[in-house]
Design a protein that fits this description.
Layout (H helix, E strand, L loop, with lengths): L2 H30 L6 E13 L4 E6 L6 E2 L4 E6 L1 H26 L3 H33 L5 H30 L3 H26 L2 E3 L4 E6 L6 E2 L4 E18 L11 E6 L4 E12 L19 E8 L11 E4 L1
Helix pairs in contact: 2-5, 3-4
Length: 327
């Protein structure tokens, strides 16, 4: 066999080997396919923190972490002696304002009214005598028996007693009518202010007993019995187990089939089960979040979106923190 023929046979063998390799690669690619991309998330839950409007010392904590509480259950009791002292002050101010308001409504005392009435009667009697005396002096003056000086003195005395009677009548009317309208309104306003202070302190007293506003599970308790808590300081956290959802971080090149309203099937490794979920929220996580850079290949950056989905069916035992796998 010539050298030329051997060389050609070697080329044919190499070419055949390359074709076999390519063929096997194509068969493997189309037969096995690519591994599906996995999106991993976790279960989240709505929470609310229990806190007080008033500072005080923790007197009792009536629940433990892991307890399930219902609306209205007592969670903790706070000792706030300063609030009780303010309540005593507010009630004292209310009683004083109420007495002033009652006094303004009732007017003068009966003894004052009676005294004003007696003075009025005395003034009327004096006016009657002064009028009769003036009439007698006037007749004598007309007859020429009495001098003009005496007539003028009697007339002046009559007018003075008339003014005295009018003044006594005013004093009597004022005693009967009581305080002025402005004084009554001022007393009412002061009473309303005092009652408002009592209502305010009452609301603060209600804050010394913390009640559950929503049913859920006690996930964390922060202070211990005997510790001081300030205004707005968290006492415990309640997880509302009826409001669960899944959170996923998804690159934008994986969002082809995901939008609000899309139904997903998530695998829960904790139970080795799947759960149906419906997407209700999508939002980009900004430049600070996880992203995949492709600029080194002359392409573009891929941002990450936060996707939230709620279970459409109940999975018993599902808890916050459990993993969710979407393929």
């Amino acid at each position: 066999m010539s050298a030329k023929t051997q060389h050609r046979n070697i080329l044919y063998a190499i070419f055949g080997f390359v074709c076999v390799v390519i063929l096997m690669g194509l068969i493997g690619f189309f037969a096995l396919g690519r591994d599906p991309e996995i999106i991993q998330g976790q279960v989240e839950v709505s929470e609310y923190r229990v806190s007080s409007k008033v500072p005080g010392r923790i007197l009792e904590i009536r629940v433990k972490e892991g307890d399930f509480v219902k609306v209205g259950d007592t969670l903790a009791v706070i000792d706030a002696p300063e609030v009780r002292a303010k309540m005593n002050q507010a009630r004292g101010a209310e009683e004083g304002a109420s007495a002033l308001d009652q006094m303004a409504r009732n007017g003068a005392r009966k003894e004052q009214v009676q005294g004003a009435y007696q003075l009025l009667q005395k003034a009327k009697a004096g006016l009657e005598i002064a009028e009769k005396s003036y009439n007698r002096v006037q007749r004598l003056y007309d007859e020429g028996v009495m001098s003009e000086q005496k007539r003028d003195e009697a007339f002046a005395n009559y007018k003075a007693m008339e003014a005295t009677c009018a003044a006594a009548q005013s004093q009597y009317d004022m005693a009967v009518n009581g305080a002025r309208q402005e004084e009554k309104l001022a007393a009412q306003a002061q009473l309303s202010r005092a009652r408002g202070a009592v209502e305010e302190v009452t609301s603060y007293l209600g804050e010394t007993v913390q009640l559950a506003q929503m049913e859920g599970e006690v996930s964390s308790i922060y202070p211990k019995v005997g510790e001081l808590v300030g205004t707005g300081s968290p006492i415990m956290t309640i997880s509302m187990m009826q409001d669960l959802w899944g959170t996923f971080n998804v690159r934008e090149d994986q969002l082809n089939d995901i939008k609000v309203g899309t139904e997903l099937t998530a695998y829960v490794p904790a139970f080795d089960k799947e759960v149906k979920m419906k997407v209700y929220y999508m939002k980009d996580q900004g430049s600070y979040a996880v992203w995949k850079a492709t600029k080194s290949r002359g392409q573009y950056d891929l941002k990450t979106f936060e996707v939230k989905a709620r279970p459409t069916e109940k999975l018993e035992g599902l808890r916050p923190g459990m993993s969710l796998i979407v393929r």
